[in-house]
C-alpha cells in the first residue's frame, strides 16, 4: 500500500512587444522585445513501506519530495528590410538570456537528505545571433538567393563555462513560373545547439520513483 499527497503550483508571466518603423518606401526596421518568468513547484508526501525500509524508518513514516523549477528569459531581435530594384536584403541582430534553477530534494522522517538523491542545478545561457539574407531577381523565371548566419552561445552549468560558435551558410537558385511548377537547387550547412537543456548527463534526479539521475 503506497499513498501520496501532492501539491503543485505553476505561475508564469510573459510579455511580447513588437514595433515597426517604415523609413521610406520599401525600407523598414522591425523590433521584437520579449520577457518571461515562470515558477513551477511540487511538494509530495509519500508513505511507502518499500521506501521506508530503504531509509530505515517506521512503516507508516512519511517521506517528503520537493521539486522546484524557476526560469527567467528575456531577449530582443531587430530586423531591417530593404528592397532596391531587383534586390531584397534582410539583416537581423538578436540576443537572448536564459536562466533556469532546478532543485530536487528527498527528505526522510528524521529530516535527513541523501546527497545522491538530490540536485541543485543552475543553468545560464546567452545567445548572440547575426544573420543576413538576400534575394536577387535575375529574370521572371530565375532568382538567386543566399543566407549567412553567425551564432555565439555562452553556456554555464553550475559554474562550468562552455562557449560555442555556429556559422551557417546557404546558397541557392530558384526557377519559377515553369510548366511543371517551381524548381530550386540549394546548398546549406546547419549547425546549432540543442533546443532543450534536458540532454546533459547526470545533472538532475529524474524522479523519486526511479532514483535515476540524468537523461540519455
Helix fraction bin: under 10%
Largest sheet: 8 strands, antiparallel
- Series of H and E elements: EEHEEEEEE
Give the number of helices. Answer: 1
Q: Based on the structure, what is the oligomeric state of the protein chains?
A: single chain
Strand order of the largest sheet: 1-2-3-4-5-6-7-8
Mean pLDDT: 89
Any low-confidence stretches, pLDDT <50, length ≥5?
none
Q: How much β-strand is present in the residues?
A: over 45%
Helix- and strand-based class? mainly beta
| N-to-C span | 32 Å
Structural notes for this entry:
The structure is a single chain. The protein has one helix at residues 49-54; strands spanning 3-24, 27-47, 63-84, 87-107, 119-137, 142-157, 160-178, 181-188. The protein is mostly beta strands and 216 residues long. It is elongated, with a radius of gyration of 26 Å. The two termini are 32 Å apart. 5% of the residues are buried.
Blueprint of the fold:
Elements: E1 3-24, E2 27-47, H1 49-54, E3 63-84, E4 87-107, E5 119-137, E6 142-157, E7 160-178, E8 181-188
Antiparallel strand pairs: 1-2, 2-3, 3-4, 4-5, 5-6, 6-7, 7-8
Index terms:
single chain; 216 residues; mainly beta; eight-stranded antiparallel beta sheet
Amino acid at each position: 500500500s503506497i499513498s501520496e499527497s501532492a501539491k503543485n503550483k505553476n505561475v508564469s508571466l510573459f510579455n511580447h512587444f513588437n514595433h515597426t518603423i517604415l523609413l521610406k518606401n520599401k525600407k523598414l526596421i522591425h523590433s521584437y522585445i520579449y520577457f518571461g518568468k515562470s515558477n513551477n513547484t511540487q511538494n509530495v508526501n509519500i508513505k511507502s513501506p518499500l521506501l521506508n525500509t530503504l531509509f530505515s524508518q517506521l512503516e507508516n513514516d512519511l517521506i517528503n519530495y520537493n521539486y522546484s523549477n524557476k526560469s527567467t528569459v528575456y531577449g530582443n531581435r531587430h530586423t531591417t528590410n530593404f528592397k532596391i530594384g531587383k534586390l531584397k536584403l534582410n539583416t537581423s541582430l538578436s540576443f537572448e538570456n536564459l536562466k533556469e534553477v532546478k532543485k530536487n530534494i528527498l527528505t526522510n522522517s528524521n529530516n535527513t537528505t541523501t546527497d545522491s538523491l538530490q540536485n541543485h542545478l543552475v543553468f545560464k545561457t546567452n545567445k548572440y545571433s547575426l544573420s543576413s539574407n538576400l534575394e536577387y531577381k535575375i529574370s521572371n523565371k530565375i532568382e538567386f538567393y543566399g543566407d549567412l548566419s553567425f551564432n555565439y552561445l555562452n553556456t554555464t552549468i553550475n559554474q562550468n563555462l562552455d562557449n560555442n560558435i555556429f556559422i551557417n551558410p546557404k546558397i541557392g537558385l530558384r526557377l519559377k513560373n515553369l510548366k511543371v511548377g517551381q524548381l530550386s537547387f540549394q546548398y546549406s550547412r546547419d549547425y546549432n545547439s540543442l533546443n532543450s537543456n534536458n540532454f546533459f548527463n547526470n545533472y538532475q534526479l529524474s524522479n523519486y520513483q526511479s532514483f535515476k539521475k540524468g537523461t540519455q
